[in-house]
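Mods, move this if it's the wrong board.
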Amino acid sequence: MEKKPHLLILSALPLATGGIEQHLLYLLAAARTQYRITLLSPALPEFLGRLQSLGVDVISWRVSGYADLHALWDLRHVLHKCLPDLVHIHDARAGFLGRLLIKLLGIPVVYTIHLPSYFYWRETPLKVIINKLYAAMESVLNRLATDRVIYIGRLTFEDAIKRSLVPSKKAVLIENGIDLQPFRLQILSDVQNLREQSGVPKNIPVICSVARLTVQKNLELLIRAAACLKENGIFFRLWLVGDGPDRKNLEALVDSLNLQHEVFFWGTRPDIPNLLAASDVFVLPSRYEGGRTLSVMEAQAAGKPCVVTDVGDHRFMVENGVHGFVVPVDDLDSVVGGLSRILSDPESMTSLGAASREQAFSSYDVDLMTRRVLEVYKYLHVGKKTS
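Not the wrong board. Structure tokens:
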């Protein structure tokens, strides 16, 4: 029996829970039948536990920054020990540290850009300079030390081509997908139990947001929008699903705005499809995103109208007045307006949700995403063997 080629997945991120982690799990599950897989990453226990059934070897990798020479030395040791046939990198820091070294060893390199480092929202006068520096670094490495650059978002793909940050022959657009099976059938009793568990009165609509509680997701704006809805006499409950460093600040904001009865913090949950099914409207007021946002895809698969900010690929996912509303970043009035329009018109809420579900089931199947990535692997691996 022919030995499976060896795939090394490289990430300098402390992988735990989130969109990148779910993307990797989908990919690893699809690739394990064709490849022996090793993950080199400072992944946290919660992510490693989700890997157990996939047969992936894991090597811990400590990375303290873009110029971490110790991490570079450790990577060199792993490359010589594992002798991978292909390396797939999944974040900018790992990409900066490792791509030149990997190419010098003659190993094909695939680099997936989940969120370009030059797209990050930064509150600093040096923002423009920092972003231009990162863009220049990406451009050089994309040309000299990368065989294929996979963009998960249409906006970032088109931007990179337009700005000549990547040779067009190396750039591939492979948009994110999700497993749609959990959204096909919902158990009514499970959905009702969630509403009762969080104290939602009958016939009161639930606004839901699934996100890490960080500055990127801008949930402070959503809480302030909830206060405005309450002042306007609109009855609702707001569910915040997820955890993160901003939780205490957000809880304090809820208290200061006297929203203790309206806002419920669920923390990290494994039953996202049921929580979405039990809600009525989905909101994500992010300051920046890289492509199709996982939680928006899930909300649409659950048949929910969405109010999202115009970042990442949200404008391609949510058509105004069809699936919900796309609003400007940090625009409180627009978020309040979009939610008010949806909550005040139950018939519209139903039709927007139905259109969202149709969008998800026609466009977001994860099998398409993983199949196209495996096609990239095969092309590069076969090319290496025949060259």
